[in-house]
């Protein structure tokens, strides 16, 4: 989901996403055309060869994956493929003589198309025997210098892969986001001493436009396309802001791509200060960009599905999605929406899909990425912090934030903007006056060489005033530095470090701001008669916030990170699926920024930006998954997810439990030990994931059986996949996932998990802690498993007391050669009578 900060994070009102997304198309009116996604009953091209046989018919009985050869046309309905022609023919036959506009043909992951039609035309299409579903298009939104070290890559995972110059080699990560700035050094291919070939399995293209000229792609950035037909059809595409090309006019896509796969050792210089060298998690991997989200409006499912379809056809190994729906998608169940079903087909094609959990936490069931075939990532803090402070003349030290230099121990006078006006008639109660946005109204003689005190009001949160403009004012007036105090009306906001060239500090606490103002006002010397200020007696020094320290308690689940379990579904009730799958660093992340990125005005014109959100956490895992895929090229997506999950860390850097924040306001004061619904399996541990010992694997047929177990789903499953539901349907708790979630335990329940040994022969001991109100037994409790062999574990739950609250436990598999696999348990007991057994 969208990255969370633009210098300040809203935590009471939902200013937690990158864009305010226009939801045109989410509602329909009789007679008014809208974009619909139409899926057909014929099987998918991703699963069947569409070559015509000698009789001119399509042999849809071929049961193998097929990747059509690319031609020079875009996959937008004009590629000349069989399905594209069939889609055109169906529309012509159904809507004879009527106006409509086909936007895309989807012919690799789902068989269907996006079309602009009226409600009356929707009815005609829905009645066709070839048509499976007609869904109204819906809107979507977007959801490091130190994190490689925090995650132990330099001494761990990178060493196993041969060093950072080889980490991720041969793996292609596809980013569906706001595009990329190809000029950024994080994506250059000329800083490698080794050959850097484009993988043979990749067949994508590099779209060339005036904004994205020839030569933009290279051996690092190997593919780039943009998808905006749905937005253009709605008349909301702004070419001057959004760029009709893969170029990133926002910054978000450039940021996420560099987190996962940015080059190693790129200097991070912001506001003239050096903040270290940045690297992606898999610095040797390749990047292919599929731009489907835009600065001015966000994005739409029709464009996102087209991007996913193209990425899979191109042959990417991993898809990174820092986006989520704006609302619950329509359909028989949450899972049956075009995006998730396209991603299910991508998983069948062997693509590991990572998605941001969403920035809608900390409420339970706030998760925005829910399907079991998608790997969902929540956001955690890491241990690096930038702290700044203001030391007053009365020896009181006030903590603050700001990526700014200090005053070098100089003690300087302080002058408030409202006391330094040129015109005495100016209304000092006018909010903008105190925000220091206009140097022309302030007296330079009074400000020069002093610390200028300015108000940080709600206008900064709304983007009406900016730190950048305040700094420009201070520069114009020759101020020695800037001190911001928090307006008392701004409550429930968490400030983030903001780059400043001048010495500066922002005091985030209203109470601390009162301390500053009391000291300042009490130090003023006034004429008793006129009350005119004769002397500014308050003095202070700024300690400076350029140098990082690593004392932050970490990891901890950030308050905005969406929480599980899977949200309730009108058709499925609780889905018995643990979400998120795990957490990764997502707070205060340094990464590349687009040269014209305007989403954060404070970083405008910079090459790097510090952002927060689950959008930043997801690409960490996408990059780390590339390392796993590099070592285990035959792993299915579920096996990669299992390796990441069962090896995740359960403890913070101090050795205590990982904590989770639970409130927007003063989040550190409301922490408690994180549960699996907060953090999934724990914090990603890349080094351990490269040697998991045991894995729990699932395949497409398992997910199909799960979908078939949803009441009334059989026709929808057939429509999307071309496969009929059999009798061996299962529910979510029976999926071979590296977790067990049971939302309604009635008396007792037994589930199975099958582990596969990918290491050498090893003996395992099984231990567990039972959820409260439940007794647990696992058999066998000991087993010897040979390399490549499987072992079935029977996990039995028996209720011992009734409870409406979820309780948590854990199963640990401990090998005698050091391998450990953790399986989190989550159970709610809902029964009418309780057995007396314990």
UniProtKB/TrEMBL annotation:
GO CC terms, sorted: extracellular region
PROSITE patterns xref list: SUBTILASE, SUBTILASE_ASP, SUBTILASE_SER
Gene3D superfamilies, sorted: 2.60.40.2310, 3.50.30.30, Peptidase S8 propeptide/proteinase inhibitor I9 (3.30.70.80), Peptidase S8/S53 domain (3.40.50.200)
Any one Gene Ontology molecular-function term assigned to this protein's record: serine-type endopeptidase activity
Family annotation (SUPFAM superfamilies): Subtilisin-like
Residues of the Subtilisin-like protease fibronectin type-III domain: 734-827
Active site: 177, 252, 615
UniProt keyword tRNA processing present: no
Similarity field: Belongs to the peptidase S8 family.
Signal peptide: 1-25
Protein name as catalogued: Subtilisin-like protease SBT2.2
Keywords attached to this entry: Glycoprotein, Hydrolase, Protease, Serine protease, Signal
A GO BP entry: proteolysis
Residue ranges of every copy of the Inhibitor I9 domain listed in the record: 35-142
Subcellular location: Secreted
Pfam families according to UniProt: fn3_6, Inhibitor_I9, Peptidase_S8
Domain Peptidase S8/S53: 168-660
């Amino acid at each position: 989901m969208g990255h969370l900060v633009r210098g300040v994070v809203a935590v009471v009102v939902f200013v937690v996403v990158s864009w305010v997304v226009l939801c045109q198309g989410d509602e329909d009116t009789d007679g008014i055309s809208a974009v619909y996604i139409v899926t057909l009953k014929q099987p998918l091209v991703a699963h069947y060869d569409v070559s015509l046989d000698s009789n001119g018919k399509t042999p849809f009985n071929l049961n193998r994956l097929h990747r059509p050869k690319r031609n020079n046309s875009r996959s937008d309905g004009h590629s000349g493929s069989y399905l594209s022609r069939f889609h055109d023919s169906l529309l012509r036959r159904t809507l004879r003589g009527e106006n409509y506009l086909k936007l895309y043909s989807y012919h690799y992951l789902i068989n269907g198309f996006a079309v602009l039609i009226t409600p009356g035309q929707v009815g005609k299409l829905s009645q066709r025997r070839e048509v499976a579903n007609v869904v109204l298009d819906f809107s979507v939104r977007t959801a490091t210098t130190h994190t490689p070290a925090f995650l132990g890559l330099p001494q761990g995972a990178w060493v196993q892969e041969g060093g950072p110059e080889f980490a991720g080699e041969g793996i292609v990560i596809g980013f569906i986001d706001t595009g990329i700035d190809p000029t950024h050094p994080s994506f250059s291919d000329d800083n490698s001493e080794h050959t850097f070939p484009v993988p043979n399995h990749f067949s994508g293209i590099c779209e060339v436009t005036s904004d994205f000229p020839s030569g933009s792609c290279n051996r690092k950035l190997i593919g780039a396309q943009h998808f905006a037909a749905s937005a253009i059809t709605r008349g909301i595409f702004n070419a001057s802001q959004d760029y009709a090309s893969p170029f990133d006019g926002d910054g978000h896509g450039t940021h996420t791509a560099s987190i996962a796969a940015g080059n190693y050792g790129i200097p991070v210089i912001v506001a003239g200060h050096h903040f270290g060298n940045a690297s992606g998690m898999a610095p040797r991997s390749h990047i292919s960009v599929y731009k489907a989200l835009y600065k001015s409006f966000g994005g739409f499912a029709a464009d996102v599905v087209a991007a996913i379809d193209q990425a899979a056809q191109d042959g990417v190994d991993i898809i990174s999605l820092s986006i989520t729906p704006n609302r619950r998608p329509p359909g028989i169940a949450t899972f049956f929406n075009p995006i998730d079903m396209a991603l299910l087909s991508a998983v069948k094609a062997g693509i590991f899909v990572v998605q941001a959990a969403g920035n809608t936490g900390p409420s339970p069931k706030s998760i925005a990425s829910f399907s079991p075939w998608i790997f969902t990532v929540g956001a955690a803090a890491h241990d690096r912090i930038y702290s700044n402070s203001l030391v007053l003349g009365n020896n009181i030290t006030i903590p603050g934030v700001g990526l700014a230099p200090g005053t070098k121990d100089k003690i300087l006078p302080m002058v408030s903007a409202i006391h330094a006006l040129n015109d005495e008639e100016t209304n000092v109660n006018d909010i903008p006056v105190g925000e220091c946005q206009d140097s022309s109204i302030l007296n330079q003689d009074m400000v020069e060489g002093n610390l200028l005190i300015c108000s940080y009001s709600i206008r900064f949160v709304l983007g009406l005033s900016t730190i950048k403009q305040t700094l420009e004012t201070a520069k114009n007036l020759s101020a020695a530095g800037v001190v911001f105090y928090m307006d008392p009306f701004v409550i429930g906001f968490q400030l983030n470090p903001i780059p400043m060239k001048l010495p500066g500090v922002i005091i985030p606490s209203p109470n601390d701001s009162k301390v500053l103002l009391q000291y300042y006002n009490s130090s003023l010397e006034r004429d008793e008669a006129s009350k005119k200020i004769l002397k500014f007696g308050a003095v202070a020094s700024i300690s400076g916030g350029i140098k990082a320290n690593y004392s932050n308690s970490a990891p901890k689940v950030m308050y905005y990170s969406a929480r599980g379990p899977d949200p309730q579904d009108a058709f499925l009730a609780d889905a018995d699926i643990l979400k998120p799958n795990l957490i990764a660093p997502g707070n205060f992340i340094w990464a590349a920024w687009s040269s014209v990125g305007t989403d954060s005005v404070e970083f405008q014109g910079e090459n790097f930006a510090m952002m927060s959100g689950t959008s930043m956490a997801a690409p960490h895992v996408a990059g780390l998954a590339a390392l796993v895929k590099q070592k285990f090229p035959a792993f299915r997506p579920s096996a990669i997810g299992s390796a990441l999950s069962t090896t995740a860390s359960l403890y913070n850097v101090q050795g205590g439990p990982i904590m989770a924040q639970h409130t927007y306001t003063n989040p550190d004061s409301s922490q408690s030990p994180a549960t699996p619904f907060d953090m999934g399996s724990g914090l990603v541990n890349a080094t351990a994931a490269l040697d998991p010992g045991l894995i729990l694997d699932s395949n497409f047929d398992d997910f199909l059986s799960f979908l078939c177990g949803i009441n009334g789903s059989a026709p929808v499953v057939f429509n999307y996949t071309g496969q009929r539901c059999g009798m061996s349907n299962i529910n979510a708790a029976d999926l071979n996932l590296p977790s067990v979630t049971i939302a309604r335990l009635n008396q007792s329940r037994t589930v199975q998990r099958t582990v596969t040994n990918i290491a050498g022969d090893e003996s395992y001991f099984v231990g567990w802690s039972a959820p409260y109100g439940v007794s647990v037994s696992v058999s066998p409790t000991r087993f010897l498993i040979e390399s490549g062999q499987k072992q079935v574990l029977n996990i039995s739950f028996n209720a011992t007391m009734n409870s409406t609250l979820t309780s948590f436990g854990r199963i640990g598999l401990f090998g005698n050669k050091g391998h450990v696999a953790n399986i989190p348990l989550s159970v709610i007991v809902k029964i009418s009578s309780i057995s007396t057994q314990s």
